[in-house]
Amino acid sequence: MRVQGVVLQRFDNAVISLPDSGGPQNAELVPAPLYLQAAGYFPETPFLPRALPVYPMEAPPVIRHGDPTQPYVFITLDDCWDPELTSRALDIARDERIKITFFPVGAELQKTPALWRRAVVEGHSIENHTHLHLPLPQFTDDRIRWELAEARRQLNGVLGYEYPQRFMRPPEGAGIPDARSRLVRLSQAAGLHIAMWTADSKGWHYPRDGSARARDFVLGNLSDHFTPGAILLLHALESDLAALPRLAREIHGAGLQSVNLRDQLHLPGQKIGNGDPLSTCPEPLPDAVEWC
Fold it and tell me: What is the DSSP secondary structure assignment for residue 229, as one 8-state letter?
């Protein structure tokens, strides 16, 4: 629906307005009860977010943001050196009803195969962060190809089948401004698109600190980016995991839900069905939402 040059998209749990001339940064999301109250309706009981279809969009070669007209954000978790921290992340995701897109280091996967099988069973996705987490622009094309292929081979060995990875994230985001064309070319040749981020938690400033100070630091770096389509970068660190439960609840409280990157973003030529939504996002727990 268009009203005075603004596109309004209505979902069961939210209304998104996007000016015709705007981009993702101009999208505005309003929780449905507030929207209804402003229109003169006062529901007796607050609405809770419901599982909604996720409609696909084609991913660009370098991804920094998803679709600003759908009420979803993407929580991504990198590296995963410590299995105990990764296991905690899965526990939090289960309890808070969020989905995580993991970018683990390939060389770590064989150490805990059951952990990564659990991640897939519980509906998360596992993408490519190279095998040894090295600064890719410093290496030859052949070495970069090997890094991507070996990380994928390790994951397939852990899962026992060929897992369809769709995205890669260069370690530390290294060299993207200077080596973008080369990394894009090599990634696309491997059937992958480069997934960057909208906002960085910067939890790596406090890697072993799970205190309230570290938690609030992480939330402070992300809280201005709870907008439709935002890709949030976290790592499997004490600081980021300390913030993750509240992060999930604040996302839900903003009328958003967290889904995998692959739920919304598809690669050119990827078969996604006959115009049907790719998937349905999980329902947040009722006590995680405060609408009014």
Answer: T
